């Protein structure tokens, strides 16, 4: 290990020790104290709007000079509306019910003891993310509300923006009498800091990566700390034989074109062969007019002039762009088989008026969100009533789907007795 890496490792260890100590204080803090900190952060962000925009402008100039893709620059750019949204988000988190200390399933056992479960913080959460500076405020707010400390490592392209937002976060913590180390933003842009963070299992309890597939794959492969993640968002809409065509048009259009670059955007459209001739010409005309490139199987191409032939790779691809794969299937079983083969267990929806096929789809599609007659774009913490989300998990342990406050906590068993002993 060279001197620079040794220094970074030592610095990260120091951040970890400080976070572990701060986590104990946050876990013991009163709900009102944490809410006070969140509201104070929001006030500071609104007050420092000009400073945040100036810091972000530096990041944007550097990003363009480095030749970053326009989509990345777009995600990096803060606006007045975006800053207001950050502040609004913190205020909304403050209004959410505090999960910490909630006792559930309390019941008497034959021995006379009462056994239940209490919700508790995870401890120290490491967040690794790219481009979007708003994640600094969102992650800080959610981790704090759930009684955790956080170590935030944003991308090098947003370093000035993240540091400016972090100053507002620290001000809010100090205002509430909470340790400033409860939320720390890693200052170095060296990738060695990520390697250190994801292996500090003595200080960090869970890692949440937010970014591209490459980043998440690297963290999943190298981490010695548990990871809450999803790799791909290969989401499907299946239009069943019994679908209401008007509903199918609305859902399909929205699932693809409401936003192209999100993980819950539809990437593959599956259509029952018995309705394809009625449905595909209508929806494809709408999509083509919006500039969406269509890639289909032989059956779909025979119905739509100008549609490109899909390759095997297309079915696996998360485009994050105005491109859509289209396949005509013989029945719901083939649709479910396609989703199981090519999907990423993120979000899939069926458009149907048939109750039995609704039940079959809900039961057999093994994704973190399964929907009926609704756009995949609803797979979002705010839309699910979680207030906000730290990310989406396609894992099956601990948290699955949008991860909100409850996903940033765990449970412990509690036992209430009155001198009871085991015979």
Summarize the structure.
It is built from 15 helices and 16 strands.
Explain what the structure shows.
The chain has helices at 3-28, 31-47, 49-65, 70-76, 80-95, 134-145, 159-175, 192-197, 213-222, 245-257, 273-289, 298-303, 312-316, 332-342, 355-364, and strands at residues 103-108, 114-121, 124-129, 149-153, 183-185, 206-210, 235-239, 266-272, 293-296, 308-309, 323-329, 347-351, 369-372, 391-393, 401-403, 409-416. With 423 residues, the chain is α/β, with parallel strands linked by helices. The strands form four sheets. The protein has a seven-stranded parallel β-sheet with strand order 10-9-11-8-7-12-13, sandwiched between helices. Strands 5-4-3-6 form a four-stranded parallel β-sheet, with helices on both faces. Helix 10 links the parallel strand 7 and strand 8. The longest helix has 26 residues, at 3-28. The mean pLDDT is 95.
Write the SSE topology:
Elements: H1 3-28, H2 31-47, H3 49-65, H4 70-76, H5 80-95, E1 103-108, E2 114-121, E3 124-129, H6 134-145, E4 149-153, H7 159-175, E5 183-185, H8 192-197, E6 206-210, H9 213-222, E7 235-239, H10 245-257, E8 266-272, H11 273-289, E9 293-296, H12 298-303, E10 308-309, H13 312-316, E11 323-329, H14 332-342, E12 347-351, H15 355-364, E13 369-372, E14 391-393, E15 401-403, E16 409-416
Parallel strand pairs: 3-4, 3-6, 4-5, 7-8, 7-12, 8-11, 9-10, 9-11, 12-13
Antiparallel strand pairs: 1-2, 2-16, 14-15
Helix pairs in contact: 2-5, 2-6, 2-7, 3-7, 5-6, 6-7, 10-11
